[in-house]
Every structure is written in structure tokens, then in C-alpha cells.
Write a structure and sequence with these properties.
The chain is mainly alpha-helical. It has helices at residues 2-18, 24-60. It has 2 helices and no strands.
């Protein structure tokens, strides 16, 4: 079993020597591409999330009554002459 592990590690070492590693310039260019695409995708997803959150909020919020939908009787007059109290009540 130990021999199999050692054999495997030697094969890995040989394969690592066959790998063509990117140059520093290529690595920097590809890193910039990956970071740029990540930023663009995150902005798009964030925009969709904002729109869905706002639209869901509009769909679930209770309707606020407006003045045109409220049918209240007109207010009664509150003149002091119309209000009867004990002081100005007519004597009977």
C-alpha cells in the first residue's frame, strides 16, 4: 500500500513538470478579466434583486385609501351659536 502511494506521488511530480504555466503578464490579464466579469455579473444580479424586492414589496403592501374612495358625510357645523350648553340653553 505504501508503494502505491509513493508511485502515485512520483507520477504526479512527472506530470507537474509537463504543465505549461502561464506567464506573469498572461496571469495578470486573465485575473483582470475574471474580476471584471465578476463585478459585472454581481451588478446585474444586484439590480435584479433590487427590482424583485421592490416589486414584491409593492405587491404585498396593503392598499392605502385615498380621498376619492372614502365616502364620509360632510362635517356638521360647529358654530358656537349652534352648540347648546347649560349656560346658553333656552329656558323651558
Amino acid at each position: 500500500m505504501f508503494n502505491n502511494i509513493i508511485k502515485f506521488l512520483r507520477e504526479v511530480q512527472v506530470e507537474f513538470k509537463n504543465i505549461t504555466w502561464p506567464t506573469k503578464e498572461t496571469l495578470i490579464q486573465l485575473s483582470i478579466v475574471v474580476i471584471s466579469i465578476s463585478i459585472v455579473i454581481s451588478l446585474i444580479l444586484g439590480g435584479f434583486d433590487y427590482l424583485f424586492t421592490k416589486s414584491f414589496g409593492l405587491l404585498t403592501q396593503p392598499k392605502q385609501p385615498t380621498e376619492s374612495t372614502i365616502n364620509l358625510p360632510p362635517p356638521e357645523s360647529t358654530d358656537s351659536a349652534d352648540i347648546k350648553t347649560e349656560d346658553n340653553a333656552p329656558n323651558q
